[in-house]
Amino acid sequence: MTIGSNLIYFKELTSTNSQASRLLKEGLAAHGYVIYADYQTSGRGRAGNKWESERGKNLLISIILNPKSILPEDQFYISMAISLGICDFIDYHLSESKIKWPNDIYVNDDKIAGILIENSILGGILESTIAGIGININQIKFPLSVPNPVSLSTLTGREYDRKVCLKEILGCLDGRYELLMSGKPEQLKNEYLSRLYRLNEWHLYRSEGKLFRGMIKGITTCGRLRIIEENGAGMEFDFKEVEYIR
Ligand code: BTN
């Protein structure tokens, strides 16, 4: 097992991603190490958002990877592998989870997990990846500022042993990372697409202030979202360029 070969626990820290980056720079952590915590004082989400998580209730994990064989232009495959690993874990406890592009994990129309991938590219080589993962496990009440959150507990009414969950999720992620490394990226991409939230359905979106009805048709090789409009015109979006309307 690669992912989780070494586990480093903190009761409280600023952010597991920031701590992982620090430990990596200082040579105190390497490929396969997992940094996890009970509480983050400055948990980070994508695009400068905050990640808020009640103390001791959820999983807050950062995984250090050295995916040197992945070309920088293929880095979205790492995101796909991590997303699918989380889906495997969620599906072990619940019915089918979905991936809201690029890598939010949804159950029905609500978010159960988020991923913050931070890649470091040096001299055209993907030197290291820090995959930060927040999964809502036992939290029942969420701040109003958090849009459409759910947890395993809100969905099943049960309380989960987070240590067991951590072991399970690391096993799931390890399996998906192996698949990525064994040169089966097409399998990952097909599975990612089969789980894509709103794939091939008409829904409302907003881009550059304009509302439009569109249908998600897939992603490009570099991970941009492909949507067609009702008039058949095709568009591609980067994260934050398109907003899903509920
Ligand atoms: C998102 O949905 O915007 C991504 C959220 C990622 C949150 C996790 S929690 C563990 C790790 N440490 C952080 O500071 N962020 C990630």
Structural description of this entry:
There is one protein chain. The protein has helices at 16-25, 76-93, 152-156, 162-181, 185-194, and strands at 6-13, 33-40, 59-65, 97-100, 104-107, 110-122, 125-135, 202-207, 210-219, 225-229, 234-237, 243-244. With 246 residues, it is of the alpha+beta class. It folds into 2 domains: 6-194, Bira Bifunctional Protein, Domain 2 (BirA Bifunctional Protein, domain 2), CATH 3.30.930; 202-244, SH3 type barrels, CATH 2.30.30. The strands form 2 sheets. The protein has a 7-stranded mixed beta sheet with strand order 1-2-3-7-6-5-4, with helices on both faces. The mean pLDDT is 95. The chain binds biotin. Biotin is lined by residues 15-17, 40, 43-46, 49, 51, 60-62, 104, 114-116, 132-134.
What descriptors fit this protein?
246 residues; alpha+beta; BirA Bifunctional Protein, domain 2; SH3 type barrels; 7-stranded mixed β-sheet; 5-stranded antiparallel β-sheet; 26% helix; binds biotin
How can the largest sheet be summarized? 7 strands, mixed
CATH architecture identity of the largest domain: 2-Layer Sandwich
Mean pLDDT score, rounded? Answer: 95
* Spatial arrangement of strands, main beta sheet: 1-2-3-7-6-5-4
Task: List the topology elements.
Blueprint: E1 6-13, H1 16-25, E2 33-40, E3 59-65, H2 76-93, E4 97-100, E5 104-107, E6 110-122, E7 125-135, H3 152-156, H4 162-181, H5 185-194, E8 202-207, E9 210-219, E10 225-229, E11 234-237, E12 243-244
Parallel strand pairs: 1-2
Antiparallel strand pairs: 2-3, 3-7, 4-5, 5-6, 6-7, 8-9, 8-12, 9-10, 10-11
Helix pairs in contact: 2-4, 2-5
The structure holds biotin.
